[in-house]
Amino acid sequence: MDNASEYRYRAPIIAPDTLVVSVSQSGETVDTLAAMEEAKKRGAPQIAICNVVGSQATRIADGVVYTRCGLEIGVCSTKTFTASVTASYLLACYLGQARGLIDQERMGGLLEPLARVPYLAGEVTKREAEFERLAHQFHRYNNFLYLGRGIQFPVALEGALKLKEVSYIHAEGYPAGEMKHGAIALIDPEMPVIAIALKDEMHDKMMSNIEQVKAREGTVIALGSEGDEELAAKADHVIYIPEASPLLSPIFTTIPLQFFSYHIALRRGCDIDQPRNLAKTVTVE
Tens digit of pLDDT for each residue in 37-63? Predict the structure, then answer.
C-alpha cells in the first residue's frame, strides 16, 4: 500500500509485470492521477476502483471496478469507503481464482458472506441510538486515540480521520502493537481510547492493550464481537459487532465509528457535509 501523494517522489519499483490498483471516490484527485501517470510511464497495467463513471482515473486505467454508490454529497466520503473495501475483496477473489489459487468450492465460500453484508450493515445501523449516547458522553473531549491490529488497523485510521474531518477534534489512528512506543505516554483520563477488539487471532493482544490503557486511568470504548463478556468486563463501553466473515469485518467496524463521528460533530455544531478547509476533490498539490 502506498500514499498516492508520495508515490512518484520515491522512484517506485514497478514494471510491466506489476499490477497497480488505484482507489479514488471521484477519480479526479490530482495526487492519485499523477501516481497513475507515473505507473503508466513505467508500463504497469492498472485497475481503478472508483465511484464516478467516466472520470479521469477510469480513463487512465486499463480496467475499472466501479463501486456505483451514487452521488456522495458530503465531503467526507463514507459509503464509498465501505464500498471500496467490498470492491477490493471482490478483486482479490477474482485474482486468486485467475491464478489458480481459489477453486470453485472455495470461491463459493468467499462470496456467500457478501450476500449477508446488506443485512448485517442494517443490523449495525439499527444501533445508532447507542452511538449517539456515546457521542453525547464524549463530545467535549479534545483528543482521541484509535487502536487496531492487523486488518482492523486501517479501520482505526478511518475512524480517527472521520472524527478529525467533521468534528475538528484531534484524533490519531495507531497500530495497537506500537502503542508502547510513544502513544502510551499520552494516555490519561482526558484522552479516550477506541479499541477494535473483535474475537479474532489478535484478540488476546488487543485485550492486553486495553489492560495497559486502563492501568493508566484511560477510558476505553471497545468494538467487540457479539457476546464477548471478557471485553465487557475490561472496557468502559462496548459496541458489539455482529458475527461476520473476518475479511469483511472492517465494513462493520467502520460504520459505528462513522456514526460516532457524525453524532459528535452534530453535538459540537459543526458543518458535517462541508467541513472547514476541506474540498470534495483535491485538484491541486
Answer: 999 999 999 999 999 999 999 999 999
Q: What Å distances lie between residue 245 and 49, 171, 228, 242, CA to CA?
A: 22, 28, 17, 10
CATH architecture observed for domain 124-267: 3-Layer(aba) Sandwich (3.40)
Q: Give the separation between CA 75 and CA 78, rounded to whole angstroms.
A: 9
Domain boundaries of the chain, sorted by first residue:
4-115, 124-267
Query: Residue 284 — very low, low, confident or very high, per pLDDT cuts 50/70/90?
Result: low
Other residues' Cβ atoms within 10 Å of the Cβ of residue 117: 18
C-alpha cell at 211: 489492560
Q: Give the C-alpha separation, 177 to 68, whole Å.
A: 36
pLDDT value of residue 13: 86
- Angle of helix 249-267 relative to helix 117-125, nearest 10 degrees? 30
Domain 4-115 has CATH 3.30.230.70: no
- Pick the closest to residue 209 from 249, 242, 174 (CA basis): 174
Average confidence (pLDDT) over 240-255: 95
